[in-house]
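Render site-specific DNA-methyltransferase (adenine-specific) in 3D.
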Amino acid sequence: MYKISQRRYLGNKNSILPFIDEIIQSEVGEFDSLCDIFSGTGVVGEYFNAKDKKIISNDLLYQNFISLNAFLNDEDYDEKKVLNYIAEFNASTPTKANYFSKNFGGRYFSDEVAKKIGFIRQEIKKLYISDAINLKEKHILITSLNYAIDRIANTVGHYDAYIKKEIREQSFEMKMLDIDNEKNALNEVHNTDANMLIRDIECDVLYMDPPYNSRQYCDAYHLLENLSLWQKPEVFGVAKKFDRSKIKSEYSKRSAAESFDDLVVNAKCKYMLLSYNNMAKRGNDRSNAKISDEDIIKSMSKRGEVKVYEKDYKAFTTGKSEHADNKERVFFVKVIK
């Protein structure tokens, strides 16, 4: 089975979940609802998911929306049926070229595997259109496909570029997801701009983990976004990206501090936590944090006293740089105004 934490993802918080949990236990105690408003792969929401809690998950990327629904939405599904389709897909040996193999074969995947990926994605679409599978089952199958290809892709963990050398034999295998639907009854999953969503929701704990720098997630994971949407757009450039202008995050732009202030001011919550590392101006320009500590504290202080927790942290990066003193900080506020 694939666990929710088994995707390679820039800035993922899997390794510091106990640290976040310690802060919530000491500062919050019991709570009924948590909003993970920049969910990414969803590991934070999944970590706190329980029968008596409401987890509100949100991400701007459709690929993550699909995954969040697969793992955290409580819609019924037929596991035996899904397993049968997974077995059929794993055993398939398509030989006909398709949209995916024409654009990504020989780059991120071997031609053989790329043909299989494109074939499977088209079959999932057909199954859903014909009502052979419901929406939850569709989300599970697409997520399984994304997790399977993420393990073998000819990259360093993202899709900004591929490794330009001969592709070795790739062992493709879809698996069932590790889902506990009994915990999901109260949950919500959204696919929208965080600053729009914040105006429409209420929660006890608001957890914020926005992009840190100018590296857009839609650039790093364009291939999985393309595969998940399956609209077969025209792609361009060496990396074969599609037009992503409508899904660029404001938190990776110069206006990040203004967006963050708007988010904090409009949040209807009892507690707020912000994860933000200490890169500041210590990396190259693209790696530098878009929101300064001064701006973070200025904004969060509008809602209450700011406390800062710090922990050494080795982040998942592009593999080009390491900072020995990299620290993950969690800014905490008990909201009083």
